[in-house]
Write a structure and sequence with these properties.
The chain is an all-beta fold. It has no helices and 21 strands. The strands form five sheets. Strands 6, 7, 8, 9 and 10 form a five-stranded antiparallel beta sheet that branches. A four-stranded mixed beta sheet has the order 1-21-20-19, with no helix packed on it. The protein is globular and about 45 Å long. InterPro entries: Glyco_hydro_43, Glyco_hydro_beta-prop_sf, Glycosyl_Hydrlase_43_Enz.
Length: about 300
């Protein structure tokens, strides 16, 4: 997701799908990534642009600001230059190898090519130390944004998914065992209607590739998905999961996570609220959590946003 309007979003938790009720906003952010660790749910949002931070909750109702993970000033290769101020956004946190790895976007694209960074962290709340160099640099019609790293539970393959917006192109790379360097690129077919904000999760041997489509600050922003028998396709497109409904507009840039206590799958995403037009919107985005339902064929039921 572009970092243009990242300054003042807020967290909105929902306790279900069609019968969900609004609860008070919790914290500013967008583009949320989520994991469970140390008996808590953690959310990593885009924030003020000059840093990335974490929030956590033991009950999904009471949230605690856990402070900064990393700041732009600590990423030497991404510091501001005289031509354009840079931002950190769209984080992805991975637990592996007995530690935590934070992947993030650095941009904007013009005049400096967009880049992805990676940092190692001492725990889910950081602090995190940048690797010292870009993990991936964009260019030639590819915008290196919105990283997501998935470790296949069946094969052990370590896959980095990234790309979008300028060129709207998805690319997949295999990572080395250190999870901070790239071994090589994996050839894939492009999913239909792909714009940005990709995510991969696996359930019951089915791989779900999901992504955002449309304009990030308009009502046509939405989440779509495909199913596959491997994490690199071929993709079978299955349709929309989230789209604008009533006063809720432009849902997108999401993550999936399974609650280890209940076994339920959740989708964490952002949206604009109380909007009557189709945008463009310039004010706050809010982050929401809702329960995901799968039908008997493993297909994801569309999420109905409701108050």
């Amino acid at each position: 997701m572009k970092p243009v309007a990242v300054l003042a979003a807020a967290l909105l938790l929902l306790a279900g799908n069609a019968a969900a009720k609004d609860t008070p906003s919790i914290f500013a952010g967008a583009d949320p990534d989520a994991i469970f660790a140390d008996g808590r749910m953690w959310i990593y949002p885009t924030g003020r642009g000059d840093r990335l931070e974490s929030w956590s909750s033991a009950d999904r109702a009471h949230w605690q600001d856990r402070g900064d993970l990393i700041r732009l000033k600590d990423v030497r290769w991404a510091r501001d230059d005289h031509a354009r101020r840079h931002f950190l956004w769209a984080p992805d946190m991975l637990a592996a190898n007995g530690r935590y790895y934070l992947y993030y976007s650095v941009g904007p694209q013009d005049p400096t090519p967009s880049r992805l960074g990676v940092a190692t962290c001492t725990g889910p709340a950081g602090p995190c130390t940048d690797s010292g160099k870009p993990l991936l640099t964009g260019g030639n019609g590819f915008e290196a944004i919105d990283p997501m790293v998935f470790i296949d539970p069946h094969s052990g393959r370590r896959l980095l998914y990234a790309g979008g917006s300028a060129g709207s192109r998805l690319r997949v790379f295999e990572l080395n065992a250190d999870l901070t360097t790239i071994a090589g690129e994996v050839a894939i077919n492009q999913p239909p209607l792909f714009t940005e904000g990709v995510f991969m999760h696996e359930r019951g041997g089915i791989y779900y590739l999901s992504w955002s489509h449309g304009h990030w600050n308009r009502a046509d922003y939405s989440v779509h998905y495909a199913m596959a028998t491997s994490p690199t396709g071929p993709w079978k497109y299955r349709g929309e999961i989230l789209s604008s409904q009533g006063r809720y507009k432009g849902p997108g840039h999401h993550s999936f996570v399974q609650d280890p206590k209940t076994g339920e799958w959740l989708i964490v995403y952002h949206r604009w609220e109380k909007k009557a037009d189709d945008g463009p919107y310039t004010d706050d985005r809010r982050v929401a959590i809702q329960t995901i339902t799968y039908d008997k064929l493993g297909q994801i039921e569309p999420v109905r946003m409701t108050d």
